[in-house]
């Protein structure tokens, strides 16, 4: 991890942390707001209840003594309020309303002219008649002064009641609650970040394994594969795809390696011959006939090398350009006729009877390549079996396929050679064929051409009944 | 000295045989593993040149089977220079190896060294009294002045010289100086011995009647 903030793990963590932080802050704000409002509403309700019980206390004795129905008049209220504070008249429970407890609830009542009607003993000093409360609107307003929380209410008559109390205990509790909430939120956030880091690491671990395996493979350990646990998640599927790719690459490289080794092996022997022959020739004076022999041997070796190099180039072109060549309709019969005509002299020289039985067989392909394929098959049939063997070439179509087959009546190819017959540089009879300029690549070329044309090459051979090579391609309807 | 070449490429086989025969080796050839193994088991060659890739049994397998009975020095020719191939060859019992394409001179030098070492001879020349044999140039000199010998005569002296003090039977001498193509039924050997005696002195080669020849 050279650049931490570019790694997926870090970025996942960053986003995860931001979202978690946002959530925690939002929850904190909401909880704070709700609890503050709830607390304040409760205080307000307390104060309101207190005010109600105060007025009930103020007027209850009077009502009972006068036995008079209906609401008391304004003057009654003023008189009653003014006369409060007299322990002789006040009911005992009323006195308890205003203990001189600084945290307790206090009530101050002013008349419309600004004179004080009632002041509870525990009221804080310096309270003045609030001017904000407009008598005509008869509303209750909340006012906070320091740690004092007050309700101001105005009667239409102009009497103003201020009821309040010190709420520092509640504020303290609220403050503690906020701190607690913040600490809890922070812990949850930290836990979420740690969990996110762990989860991201766990989720990305397979990727780490994959990249490590891939770099080991890139370093040359081609047989390594990604270990896939038995789960079928997305990364395992990716690993399967990668393993398949590695398999194909490794077998391709292996094939290439073997081919290069085979090719260099094939080139080394003629090269050795040239070296040995020239060095022998130069060791001592010889007569012209001997020099001639040396040169002929060198020439044979060099021609063999040329054959190998040519065939390798043909194979390489076919390997690389298989898909890019333009395919066009061509008749296998025409191609086979051309090839048999060209090789007729060779058949004559070997004393072989060359039969042909050609009916039209249309295929889509490259005529030049198809010709090479047929020619390789025919020249094999004319040169591998003993001289004088009958060879026949047939073509036509059957079951939606066009075919061309070359049959010789020779002794047949031993069964053990058949599976490897199309391998590059594989020879049934190395000693004899090498001197005749066969490179061991002819059938490999034929097979490559067949594959490039979506066709196939098959061989059947039985001891004493000869050998048949059959090239089959998809039939092209005319 | 008699060599066996096992090589499946006819042209290379021909070239090696000609070249080695010109270097005064009696040379037998085999073109596949089965023939080669049979010949190597039957005849005591002084050295075997063995190609790795052979039809029938390959060179490594041939070596493994040969080593069950014979200790003939083997020089392997490999067309692959991959290290595992060389290690495989040496481990199977090869004494030396050469990678194709090789220089013919190097092949000769390695064969000489192989044969020399096989006879416990670390030096490149043999001193037999006043006669000195140079194994590298295959020349012979007596008291400092060169003596011209025919290839067969030289081979005879070299073989007896490498087995100095040992009586070598006529059969063994025939086996090591002549290959399958030579006519070994004649009294060619006696002719060579008497020619060497004429050139180097009658007492150079001792005859043990009924046993063979030796150089004391």
UniProtKB/TrEMBL annotation, chain A:
Keyword Membrane: yes
Keyword list, A-Z: Kinase, Membrane, Phosphoprotein, Transferase, Transmembrane, Transmembrane helix, Two-component regulatory system
Domain HAMP: 201-254
Enzyme class (EC, first level): transferase
SUPFAM superfamilies the record matches: ATPase domain of HSP90 chaperone/DNA topoisomerase II/histidine kinase (SSF55874), HAMP domain-like (SSF158472), Homodimeric domain of signal transducing histidine kinase (SSF47384)
Catalysed conversion reaction: ATP + protein L-histidine = ADP + protein N-phospho-L-histidine
Entry's localization field: Membrane
Gene Ontology MF, one: phosphorelay sensor kinase activity
Location of the Histidine kinase domain: 262-477
Domain of life: Bacteria
Record-level GO cellular component terms: plasma membrane
EC number(s) per entry: 2.7.13.3
Region named Disordered: 58-77
Compositionally biased intervals (Basic and acidic residues): 65-77
Transmembrane segments: 12-31, 179-200
Name by which UniProt lists this protein: histidine kinase
Automatic annotation (TrEMBL), chain B:
Listed GO CC annotations: cytosol; protein-DNA complex
Annotation: DNA-binding region: 123-216
InterPro entries, per the entry: CheY-like_superfamily, OmpR/PhoB-type_DNA-bd, Sig_transdc_resp-reg_receiver, WalR-like, WH-like_DNA-bd_sf
Any Pfam family hit: Trans_reg_C
Modified residues (4-aspartylphosphate): 51
GO molecular function annotation: phosphorelay response regulator activity; transcription cis-regulatory region binding
UniProtKB keywords: DNA-binding, Phosphoprotein, Transcription, Transcription regulation, Two-component regulatory system
Residues of the OmpR/PhoB-type domain: 123-216
Domain Response regulatory: from-to ranges: 2-115
Biological-process GO terms, alphabetical: regulation of DNA-templated transcription
Listed name of the protein: Two-component system OmpR family response regulator
